[in-house]
Every structure is written in C-alpha cells, then in structure tokens.
Amino acid sequence: MDKKDIYEHLAKIYLDASLNKPKKKKEYPHLKLIFFFAITLIFSFTALILPQITKNKFQNSEIALVIQPDMAKINFNFDPAKKEIYSVNLNRLNLTKYKSLAFAIKKGSYKDITFLRVEFTNAFKEKSEIYLKNISHRWQDFKMALSDFKGITDWSEMSNISFIIEQWNAKEKHGIVLVENIRFIK
C-alpha cells in the first residue's frame, strides 16, 4: 500500500465513523410552543384583567381639593383665654361643587376629653358649626357633609374654616389637638 491508499483508507474510516455518530435527541421538543403560550397568556392577562383592576381602584378614589396638607397644631391654654382657634383663610373659594369636608385629627393626651367645633364662614358673614365629640388620641379621619352646616345658604364665596376648642368643652385647661390633611371632596 502506498501513501495514497493509506490516506484514502484512513479518510474512509474517519468519515464512516463521523457519519455513524448517533444524533443527540432533543430533550424538550415542545419548549418553543410552551414558551409561546406562556407569553400569550401574560399579554392576555395584562390586556384584559389589569385594566379592570385599575378601573375598580380609581372608582373608589375621591376627587378632593386639599386646603391644608400639613399638620396644624392647636395648642390650647385656658388660663388667660376662653377659646383657641385655628383658622384657614379660603379666599372666597367656591365650594358649590363639593359635597363634604374631610380631615384627620387626634388629641395629644388619651386622658383628655376634648370637643372640637368646626365652623364655616362665608363672605356674607353667615356662620355654621358642627361639634366633634369623639376625638381619639390616635389619628382618625372625619368626613362631614357640607349640607350638615345648616347656617350656610351660599357656598359660592367662602371666607374661612375654623377649628375651635372652647374652655367649657375641654376637661383639662391645656393640651394639644392636631389637625391635618384638610380637604373638600366632590
């Protein structure tokens, strides 16, 4: 045998051996199909279900005009005074489109029994008030209908809203009441 025959013989052995190698089987033949259905399901959920969730979330939300987002501290001391007032100037604000007043409130001491008077005044000097009797030492939200303020006939030009603590409505002669997030709700 000469070199040419040896090379041909080795090439034949090599090529036959490489052609006879067993092919690897695909371990997951349906992986692409499963992946496609998973992506389709995710997009379907996003397109169909998510808008319903956000729609329900915003249906329960309220449209509000925030007057005082910060906390106001009514620090009362009845030795020289008979009442303590925290007033917010409304600058002739038109409240005809709003239905209620809302705010968060708490008293400084859990022992103190304090009543709070909420009073509206309009540009025509009409006044109306409501008393809050159950003020807690923990933050609580109050929502009061504007229609409950019977003394106000015209809500188109409101002058101010006042939060008043009177001596005869407090057990202690001094204390603190905190009011925050004062807003009008449509």
Q: Which secondary-structure class do the elements indicate?
A: alpha+beta
Percent helix, as a range, is 10-25%
Name of the CATH homologous superfamily of the largest domain: Galactose-binding domain-like
Instruction: Let me know the largest β-sheet.
Output: 5 strands, antiparallel
CATH fold naming of the largest domain: Jelly Rolls
Large-scale geometry? elongated
Give the C-alpha Rg. 38 Å
Total count of helical runs of at least 4 residues? 2
The fraction of residues in strands falls at 35-45%
End-to-end Cα distance: 104 Å
CATH architecture of the largest domain: Sandwich
Secondary-structure element series? HHEEEEEEEEE
Poorly predicted sequence stretches spanning 5 or more consecutive residues: none
Round the mean pLDDT to the nearest integer and report it: 78
Overall number of domains: 2
What is the β-strand count?
9
Q: Class of the largest domain in CATH?
A: Mainly Beta
What report would you give on this structure?
With 186 residues, the protein is of the alpha+beta class. It has two domains: 3-59, no CATH class; 64-185, Galactose-binding domain-like (Jelly Rolls, Sandwich). The protein contains two helices and nine strands, in the order ααβββββββββ. The strands form two sheets. Strands 1, 2, 4, 7 and 9 form a five-stranded antiparallel β-sheet that branches. Strands 3-8-5-6 form a four-stranded antiparallel β-sheet, with no helix packed on it. A hairpin with a 4-residue loop joins strand 5 and strand 6. The longest helix is centred in the first third of the chain and has 29 residues, at 31-59. It is elongated, with a radius of gyration of 38 Å. The model has no long low-confidence stretch (mean pLDDT 78).
